[in-house]
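User: Sequence recovery, please. Input:
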């Protein structure tokens, strides 16, 4: 009888351990992610002074990270993680009467510019998302919530070429910029960029085979990339990027 009680106790402990491990597996889920983002820093609504987008160059906007999801119920969960992201942009636009501050032959000029502008933005950051998840099915999960990005690299620079600038106002003296290197006017507003960005993101995870899955996400910055007292670029520029990714469920 004593041996039977011991066997029952051991069996109970093994069953309890197995149930706890299974519940832990169901409660927590970890994923490793990689992805590529497309987007840019843009005003909400294109200003009339920007007459056209001439070029949009492909940049290495890769993302890598991991996250952990805690199941709150059979449908809802809470997701948190950390990601290293590259959010660059390289464009050329045509402007007319666009307010600019540039440097040419060691002289600083400010006024209304008409012509072509190349803009290069470089951003490297660690992003911390906090999202509410909704399990639509066994393989599809929706997610949305805020994020905080801490920038480790900030660059916002470029040059104006093949155009002219009216100093101070539309009737000011005319300064011509050529279309060859050495005749351009340059600018650099990297030091005026924020070190932290805040926004919201939403997306979907699709677990298509065993532990592998695809993801699609949209991140929309609520704070402009420059400090609020920066007025050289009159429009607030928001970082808006869409990311297509691949994930592996670690647990």
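Assistant: Recovered sequence (251 residues):
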């Amino acid at each position: 009888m004593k041996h039977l009680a011991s066997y029952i106790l051991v069996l109970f402990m093994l069953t309890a351990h197995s149930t706890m491990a299974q519940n832990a597996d169901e409660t927590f889920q970890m994923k490793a992610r990689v992805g590529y983002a497309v987007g840019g820093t843009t005003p909400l609504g294109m200003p009339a002074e920007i007459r056209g987008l001439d070029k949009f160059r492909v940049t290495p906007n890769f993302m890598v990270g991991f996250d952990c999801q805690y199941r709150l119920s059979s449908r809802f969960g809470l997701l948190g993680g950390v990601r290293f992201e590259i959010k660059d942009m390289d464009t050329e636009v045509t402007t007319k009467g666009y307010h600019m501050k540039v440097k040419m032959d060691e002289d600083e000029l400010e006024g209304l510019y008409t012509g072509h502008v190349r803009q290069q933005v470089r951003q490297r950051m660690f992003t911390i998302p906090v999202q509410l998840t909704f399990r639509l099915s066994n393989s599809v999960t929706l997610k949305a919530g805020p994020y905080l990005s801490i920038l480790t690299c900030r660059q916002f620079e470029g040059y104006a070429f093949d155009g002219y600038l009216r100093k101070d106002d539309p009737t000011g003296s005319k300064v011509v910029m050529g279309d060859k290197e050495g005749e351009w006017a340059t600018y650099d507003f990297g030091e005026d960029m924020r070190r932290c960005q805040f926004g919201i993101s939403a997306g979907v995870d699709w677990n298509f085979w065993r532990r592998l899955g695809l993801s699609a996400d949209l991140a929309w910055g609520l704070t402009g990339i420059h400090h609020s007292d920066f007025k050289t670029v009159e429009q607030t520029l928001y970082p808006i990027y869409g990311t297509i990714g691949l994930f592996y469920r670690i647990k």
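The chain has a mean pLDDT of 88.
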